[in-house]
Amino acid sequence: MATRVARVADSEFCLHPAGDTPTSCRLFDAIQSLYIPVIVSDNIELPFEGMVDYSEFSVFIAVSDALQPNWLVHHLRSYSDKKNDIFCQNMARVQPFFEFDNGHPGGIGLISPDDDVVGEVPVAFVVRSNGLELTEDAVKEFIAKRVVFYKKLHKVYFVHAIPKSPSGKILRKDLRAKLAMSAASQIP
């Protein structure tokens, strides 16, 4: 399980296979998390197409190319770090089109650390905005109304800032380190 989580954390891409609806949460989540959408389709209508140029931050793949053995992996590996950073910078500019009113948090970072009982549990790091009094229960309730049962938050930590890379991508490894430090300080 930990190996799978590490591989996902290292990824910079989010695959949108043919047949995936363009308004699926996967596309919105990828953009909000600054994962480069890899859209596998020969013809697709995307949200906000008239206002957003997806080619500035997405990779488009023809279905016939994606079906060739190892083609997709080799193609994605051909993108340089500089090109990926440009994609992320462009994506950060269009993020407001894909945001919904997330209530009161000034920022939120999510991780799913391993759990001995259920495998993984969602944990949130939240920045309070404008000195707003926000409780762990209020955040959990807010999220619970918007996600399926297995994505409900296990724990909420309030922080002063969410660690981000220069391109704006949330640094989940730093959040995991904060979680590990928090767990270590609670051990008697």
From TrEMBL:
Keywords carried by this UniProt record: Glycosyltransferase, Golgi apparatus, Signal-anchor, Transferase, Transmembrane
Pfam families linked: AMP-binding_C, Exostosin_GT47
Transmembrane in keyword set: yes
Boundaries of every AMP-binding enzyme C-terminal domain copy: 114-169
Domain Exostosin GT47: from-to ranges: 7-74
Membrane topology (UniProt): Single-pass type II membrane protein
SUPFAM superfamilies recorded: Acetyl-CoA synthetase-like
Cellular compartments annotated: Golgi apparatus membrane
GO molecular function: glycosyltransferase activity
Main location group: Golgi
GO-annotated cellular components: Golgi membrane
PANTHER family the record matches: EXOSTOSIN FAMILY PROTEIN, EXOSTOSIN HEPARAN SULFATE GLYCOSYLTRANSFERASE -RELATED
Record-stated family: Belongs to the glycosyltransferase 47 family.
Name of the protein in question: Exostosin GT47 domain-containing protein
